[in-house]
Design a protein that fits this description.
- The chain is an alpha/beta fold.
- It has a single domain (about 10-320), classed as Alpha-Beta Barrel (TIM Barrel), CATH 3.20.20.
- It has helices at about 30-35, 45-50, 90-105, 115-120, 140-150, 165-170, 185-195, 200-210, 235-245, 270-285, and strands spanning about 15-20, 25, 55-60, 125-130, 155-160, 175-180, 220-225, 250-255, 290-295, 300-305.
- It has a ten-stranded mixed β-sheet.
- Helix 5 (about 140-150) links the parallel strand 4 and strand 5 (about 155-160).
- It is globular and about 50 Å long.
């Protein structure tokens, strides 16, 4: 996902973003652009077989989050408010998101590196990465949105901070792949690193991990490593991971980008060697396998081995289609 240098109070009006209604936004990921212009695209292509040039990166809650993570590239000018706004219908959010993606991609038609067939495919997104910014589970019509995406033949990757277990429990249908961010090994580190709005956020995250264990979908935990803040404690991370018993774990190094540069420094960026060392120790504790590494994204994939890595219909055989 991209960072931005000049994010204002409303992310939907920030450079490079397109509004998709009153509370949703779309931004072309740099990996989507990379895949369009002849590169190999996002690490999720190598890890899971998605087609990066056909990936729609969006958020249905662009300016709403209950955490204020130090490593987040957003400017975090939002205020968490439990009072419900007038939410857009999921049909409107999806249609406006696809339209916004097409507007953002239209300029690539003049790039000599972009094949016409590749751009035509990109204008019909096949994957929806529900992340980008904000906490998507704050959108109360998320299940209906997932259903519409699936009816349209699109896979869905939902990323959540895990502090709204009631929303995760209520998901029906489930996303194609569910990510839960576990960014701290214990309550003390979690409080210092994420600055949650509610005092019970840590307990709610642990409740979500218990729910994740029961879900019949592809389940991923993500550990974003910030040197000097949340590295080490592999045994405590392993105990948390064992609650959810996910299919995959992504161990990812913090990237010094966007507004996070006002809260952290380059010294907080772990080297790939350090990320790999953490992942190796964690894998050994959990009995997971080290399945893949992306040097560009500084991320190591750990797999439990019980579920195929590639989505149905994707994977190595789809490389010619742009994976």
């Amino acid at each position: 996902m991209d960072g931005s240098e000049n994010l204002g109070d409303d992310v939907r009006t920030a450079p490079g973003y397109q509004a998709a209604g009153r509370h949703s936004a779309v931004k072309v990921c740099r990996w989507t652009a990379d895949a369009l212009t002849g590169g190999k695209g996002c690490y999720k292509s190598t890890f899971y077989g998605i087609q990066s040039h056909r990936c729609l990166q969006m958020s249905p809650a662009a300016d709403a989050c209950n955490l204020h993570c130090r490593f987040c590239w957003r400017d975090q000018s939002w205020e968490y408010d439990d009072s419900p706004p007038d939410f857009d219908a999921p049909e409107s959010v999806l249609e406006r998101s696809v339209d916004a993606q097409r507007r953002l991609l239209s300029g690539y038609g003049g790039d000599s590196r972009v094949k016409v067939t590749r751009l035509q495919e990109a204008l019909e997104p096949r994957h929806v990465a529900i992340s980008l910014t904000g906490e998507p589970t704050l959108y109360p019509k998320l299940s209906e949105y997932l259903q519409l995406c699936h009816e349209r033949g699109m896979t869905t990757f939902l990323v959540t901070n895990g502090t709204h277990p009631e929303a995760v429990r209520a998901l029906d249908p489930l996303p194609t792949q569910l990510y839960v961010s576990v960014t701290a090994p214990n309550r003390e580190v979690f409080q210092r690193l994420t600055h949650p709005s509610g005092e019970d956020a840590w307990d709610r995250l642990k409740e979500t991990l218990g729910i994740v264990r029961t879900l019949d979908t592809r389940r991923v935990l993500r550990h974003t490593l910030v040197k000097g803040w949340n590295m080490g404690w592999e045994d405590q991370y392993a105990r948390l991971d064992s609650i959810a018993l996910p299919d995959f774990i992504e161990v990812k190094g913090y990237a010094f980008m966007g507004r996070s540069r006002h809260r952290l420094s380059r010294e907080n960026v772990p080297s790939l060697v350090e990320v790999r060392a953490f992942a190796h120790r964690l894998a050994k504790l959990l009995g997971f396998e080290e399945a893949e590494t992306s040097e560009e994204a500084s991320v190591v994939l750990l797999a439990r081995g019980s579920r195929p890595r590639f989505l149905d219909g994707f994977g190595p055989d789809a490389k010619e289609s742009g994976c």
